[in-house]
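Rather than argue in generalities, we reproduce a single protein record, letters for residues, whole numbers for local backbone shapes, just as it appears below:
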Amino acid sequence: MTRIRTALFSALVCCAFLARAVHAQVAPVKPGLWQIQIERETNGQKAPDMSERLKNMPPERRAQMEAMMKQRGISAAGNVMKVCQTREMLDSKHFVNSLANCKITYSTRTDRSWKSHTSCPQSQLESDVDIVFLNPENYTTKTTSIIQSGGQTKTSHMTMTGKWLSADCGDIKPISTTP
């Protein structure tokens, strides 16, 4: 269960970072439905994808996790997520702190690359994020996170490859980092 929480937390942190980043500066990507492929390893071992983790949960817990993801605008199957990002999210000039009690320090914010360090003392999480915007329909995010959990230090490496699918998000709600 701890592995599932850690994995979900890592995925939500990355989504929250991207949502927060687009509020901090206009992201050079199109609004709409995005497909995000995720590759993740923890402590040097490939992490199971979301469907593998969900299938091992009791049915009521699985339904709860799926509802929470849907409520936040995340549709996941295997190692692929679909998220909706609106024009307002991409055009906003307002800085929104979507990661409570965390501090993000940017080392680079250009039209093609955003690099930052996130420190969340209460969550015992430190992350380095590097986003490369290849063009308005493609980006890659590489994240290295260190989290303290159950008295152990876990290092996670995640690569997310975003591909724009459509201006219409269909039944997927805009991404939200709050319940």
Observations:
- The chain has one domain: 2-166.
